[in-house]
# Entry
Amino acid sequence: MASRDHRPLTLGQAAGRLVGCRFRLHGLDPATGIDCVGLVHASLAAIGRHPIPPRGYGLRNIAIDPWLVFAASSGLAPAAGEPGNDEVLLASLGYGQHHLMITTGQDEIVHAHAGLGRVVRLPRDRAMSILFRWHVPPTTEG
# Structure
């Protein structure tokens, strides 16, 4: 999918197009509802990647290690430096509650908000505990 000026769609732009989608736990299809994993899945698919979403997670998970491998298998690479645009963030929101979101700017995120029941765009809370950050590396055309 490309933007109007024919440049490739960025991850943040793809996430922004999902704002307003209904929240649904374990949802991967924007037409029927998505959760935070579904947001990352649908955004990666919209930019031409082939994500492999984890299964079996809950709203609260004490151990997240089993699901971290899905970032690499979905084509994401660890991000370094200051958080920037078009990154996937994994935050700890409290005991056992982990959440994925996508940056659309240095101070803005898109995420699937269970309490509001939809995907929203909000200012990024700088006090949020970010556990991992990933970016989409450029494709290598052979």
Notes: Residues 11-135 form a domain with the endopeptidase fold (from Nostoc punctiforme) fold (CATH 3.90.1720.10). The mean pLDDT is 86. The radius of gyration is 14 Å.
